[in-house]
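Regression check, fe (ii) ion case 293:
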Amino acid sequence: MSLAVETTAALDVRPLAGTLGAEVLGIDLSSPPDATQAEAIRAAMRDHKVIVFRDQTIDRAAQKDLTRVFGPLLRVPFVEPMADDADVIAVLKEADEANVSNFGGAWHSDFSCLEAPPAISVLHALELPPLGGDTLWCDMAAAHEALSPGYRAMLAGLSGNHTGRPYGTKAALKVPNPSRSIKMKRNDPAADLDSVHPVVRLDPETGEKSLYVNPVYTSHLSGLSREESRPILRFLQEHATRPEFTYRHRWRPGDVVCWDNRRTMHLALNDYDGYRRLLHRTTAAGEVPIAAA
Ligand SMILES: [Fe+2]
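Current build output:
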């Protein structure tokens, strides 16, 4: 990654942090990106893993057009979408919802419990608290690269068990009361299952190797007990979320942020009780994770 502004035929791309995150300028997303813009957006995603568009005035159709730049829309399990739009989740916390769990409040990669987890997620900020409610991402490829050769060799053959039952290992994390505004469908056979994924995942587009475990969905390492797995998973979480591997986004209304779930984890801060916060979320489908050789 270069610190210089990269000007493609279509867009300016300006890095926002040391390893991941970039602002993309020079595009109005209210109409569908043309082929040149779409390729430039995909290139920015390949290079930066989290891309930010500011000051956008878009409706749900335009958000879906942007999401399709990365792949077919994916309807995710167990979180109820908007009543009039099955492709969009309203990520909402009302002002009177104090001391409730927020959506995505622990480090995770979206729906890693699925056999083919989502590639890209897109959030569009509509209503925001005057302060707080930031989102953090961490770079799982930079984290993998920074491990010692010996540790990387140890991880290379390992797989992780990811569970959606009952909606991740989150039940084991200390979360307060469930949200009223985001409804979870219980007894969802599409979600109440386990998937096994490589601990080190190959990105077929960039050739990057990235860690692919997270504390919300990864219950244990395959073939190891939970007790044996815990110190390894805890170390990987602490290592991957070191400040130098992160980008923290301070939301403004009109922001659209897209991120690569295959090479990042993210976390939504829940530090804005007393204020309403509403974002629209869409998802692009991804491939079955490929083990890095
Ligand atoms: Fe998430």
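Comparison notes: Helices lie at 35-48, 60-68, 140-145, 149-156, 226-240. The mean pLDDT is 92. No diff flagged against the previous build.
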